[in-house]
From TrEMBL:
Belongs to the type-I restriction system S methylase family. This is Type I restriction enzyme, S subunit. The keyword DNA-binding applies. One of its GO terms (biological process) is DNA restriction-modification system. Signal peptide: none annotated. InterPro entries: Restrct_endonuc_typeI_TRD, Restrct_endonuc_typeI_TRD_sf, Type-I_RS_S_subunit. SUPFAM superfamilies: DNA methylase specificity domain. Pfam families: Methylase_S (PF01420). Residues 22-193, 220-412 form the Type I restriction modification DNA specificity domain. GO terms for molecular function: DNA binding. The keyword Cell wall biogenesis/degradation does not apply. It comes from Chryseobacterium contaminans. Keywords: DNA-binding, Restriction system.
Length: 423
């Protein structure tokens, strides 16, 4: 491939040798049939039998492929001609995931939140990459609406630049190589997550046990209530508006970051944590409320049952002063009965998570209180076994993070190539 600095706006920066001339500007409706999906009535179960798969926005995963729901439909679902053939590009056109792009890996139909491009030419892979490139621009067309939406007319009239079919095929063939690598990397990550989940289940149900240096099983675990093992400290309720990422002396852990980005074992050197704004008075906060290594911090509220009570364990503060903030519960071990790094995984175990979910309250927003958290029953192994358990899972997390970084780099490469190869 060669780099060419061309002044013409509809010629890409990066181009394969042998291809010249400007790309042609067309509307999306001129390069394929635009199909808006529909959702069949759920009260007629006969619709959910047959050979075709029904796809909704949650089924569309990253990059070239989609994971379709198990729901299948009969030919009754296609009376309006909304069948999508294998290889077609799918674009989420409404809601929080608007702009998400997928490619059908088999014949299907989609719900009404998806616009599809069904091409008659043998250029499905190119159109998928084209739609990925234009997705941010298409998404921007919905910016001024209360509920983001791209209707069929707007979507159909989006103008794009495309080359002749031979160049399309060359580009698609090249990009498919990195797509395949991304798909493989996603599978590696998925398998590692599954393996970790399996080990957590087996270890905390005692199906899998560690042995000591004499090749003997460690002693039986003992059951205790959380209130007998932890004390609960005061947290603050500072909103995002009172935090910043530029400067300050004290950092603050917001419950939203526990839900979205912090690792199970919280190391301040590896996390980006906001400061409390300098104009906020924190002089009345007691020293006992500042986080210490070994502390557990729980997010006490969530709209999702699977996330209520989600937690992190503080394993390294690097002398940084940190407070637990809005919608968090700060729990500190009473004595040295825990090895650093063990509790982070203890509270991820199925037994403990089931208790937290059972103790949570609410309808739209679920929450768990200190009193309910204090009643959890915890199974505690000896310190030596705790260390082995923590080391096992921390090594698995390290491997997972490495593979995720590889995936991020691949996605950056893909984004760069799209920017250079399309106009």
């Amino acid at each position: 491939m060669t780099n060419k600095k061309l002044k013409v706006s509809n010629v890409p920066n990066l181009r394969f040798p042998g291809f010249e001339g400007e790309w042609e500007t067309k509307k999306l409706e001129e390069i394929g049939e635009i199909v808006t999906g529909s959702t069949p009535p759920t009260n007629n179960r006969s619709y959910y039998e047959g050979e075709y798969l029904f796809v909704s926005p949650v089924d569309i995963q990253t990059n070239r492929y989609i994971e379709v729901s198990k729901t299948t439909l009969t030919e009754k679902g296609f009376k309006k001609g909304r069948k999508i053939k294998k290889g077609s590009s799918l674009f989420v056109c409404i809601g929080s995931t608007i702009g998400k792009v997928g490619q059908a890996n088999r014949d299907c139909i989609t719900n009404q939140q998806i616009n599809s491009i069904v091409t008659l030419e043998n250029n499905e892979d190119f159109l998928f990459s084209l739609l990925e490139f234009y997705s941010p621009k298409i998404k921007a067309l919905s910016a001024e609406q209360a509920v983001p939406i791209i209707n069929k007319t707007t979507f159909s009239n989006v103008q794009v630049n495309i080359p002749e079919l031979p160049e399309q095929k060359k580009i698609a063939s090249f990009l498919s190589l990195i797509d395949e690598r991304i798909v493989t990397q996603n599978k590696i990550i998925k398998e590692l997550k599954s393996s970790k989940h399996s080990f957590i289940k087996k270890i905390f149900t005692r199906e899998l046990r560690f042995r000591d240096n004499n090749d003997k099983y460690y002693p039986e675990w003992h059951e205790k209530r959380m209130k007998d093992l932890f004390t609960f400290k005061v947290t603050n309720s500072f909103s995002r508006e009172k935090l910043n990422y530029e400067n300050g002396t004290v950092k603050n852990i917001h419950y939203g970051d526990i839900h979205t980005k912090f690792q199970t074992l919280f190391d301040i050197k590896k996390e980006i944590v906001p400061y409390i704004n300098s104009n906020i008075n924190i002089t009345k906060i007691s020293e006992d409320s500042y986080c210490k290594e070994g502390d557990m911090i729980f997010a006490d509220a969530s709209e999702d049952l699977n996330d209520v009570g989600k937690s992190i364990e503080i394993i390294n503060l690097n002398n940084q002063r940190i407070l637990a903030g809005l919608h968090t519960i700060l729990a500190r071990p009473i004595s040295n009965i825990f090895s650093i790094g063990f509790c982070g995984y203890l509270f991820k175990s199925q037994k403990v998570r089931a208790q937290i979910q059972k103790e949570s309250q609410g309808s739209k927003v679920l929450s768990i209180s200190v009193n309910r958290l204090a009643n959890l029953s915890l199974s505690i192994p000896c310190l030596e076994e705790q260390i082995k358990i923590a080391n096992l899972f921390s090594s698995m997390d390290l491997k997972l993070n490495t593979e995720k970084q590889i995936l991020q780099e691949l996605e950056k490469q893909k984004k760069f190539l799209l920017q250079q190869m399309f106009v």
